[in-house]
Amino acid sequence: MFTRIGLFLLTNFAVLILASIVMSLLGVNPSQMSGLLVMAAIFGFGGSIISLLLSKFMAKRGTGAVVITEPRNQTERWLLDTVARQAKAAGIGMPEVAVYDAPEINAFATGANRNNALVAVSTGLLHNMSEDEAEAVLGHEISHVANGDMITMALLQGVLNTFVIVLARVVGGVIDSALSGNREGGGRGFAYYIIVFVLEMVFGLFATMIAMWFSRRREFRADDGGAALAGRQKMIAALERLKLNHGQSTLPTQIAAFGIAGGAAKKLFMSHPPLEERIAALRSSTVV
Question: Would the pTM of this model clear 0.90, i.e. be above it?
Fold first, then answer.
């Protein structure tokens, strides 16, 4: 909890400092920024909070995951019992447990509340992993829930969205003013909105890099959590199994960052660290 709050406050502080420096360099009066900041915060946090609140519903719809209410076979009974045991050990409420049809080996956790989350596994995981490996994957996802990762990512994304909206308009106004020759603030014609759009794309890329850096850092913590709940060797074996599956993910974009496996991408934009790095970190960990 302290780490999550600390990261959120530190990010906010960094954004405020950077915004102040940018406004000073560009000669913008901070007193004129209040309306823009309010608007940016509403839009910046609004989307991420709504996504968080709808995350379970959207995840079920996006993957076709079916929640297990009454176990139909021994595998489903084992899934429920394992998640229940791990949730109790992690100090969270019992999540909903679901299975979705996909050939890949993957699983994900989502939800706005650590005591009312969703943990789902693919049919590919159930068919291609041993119980020990699957137990470690479930521990990894339970750790995401216990660490409050879904909430933290939503807060971080809200801060970054706000930063992008504000900075794009401040810099865009200065550029438009210079191009139009109006030093009192520039026109607000078509060119201004094109400039702002381009700047939002550019700043958005940097914001994505920051979010993905945090996502990668969070995966190491979830791996440690999975090792603590299921055992380090089981967690390593699960990641080794993912390597054989090439760590591919076909999860919808909204929840891909919360899966056990990540897709291929340039490192700065990867939501998951390379499996080799995760395995090496576990081998050097003190977790039993």
Answer: no
Closest CA to 227 of 219, 216, 218, 235: 235
Residue in 135, 141, 200, 219 annotated catalytic: 141
Residue indicated by tokens 């699960």: 238
Confirm whether 240 is a catalytic residue.
no
pLDDT, tens digit, 9 for 90 and up, residues 71-121:
999 999 999 999 999 999 999 999 999 999 998 899 999 998 889 999 999
Q: Phi first, then psi: what are they for 225, rounded to 5°?
A: -65, -40
Give tens-digit pLDDT for 72-84: 999 999 999 999 9
- The residue assigned the tokens 């979010």 is 211
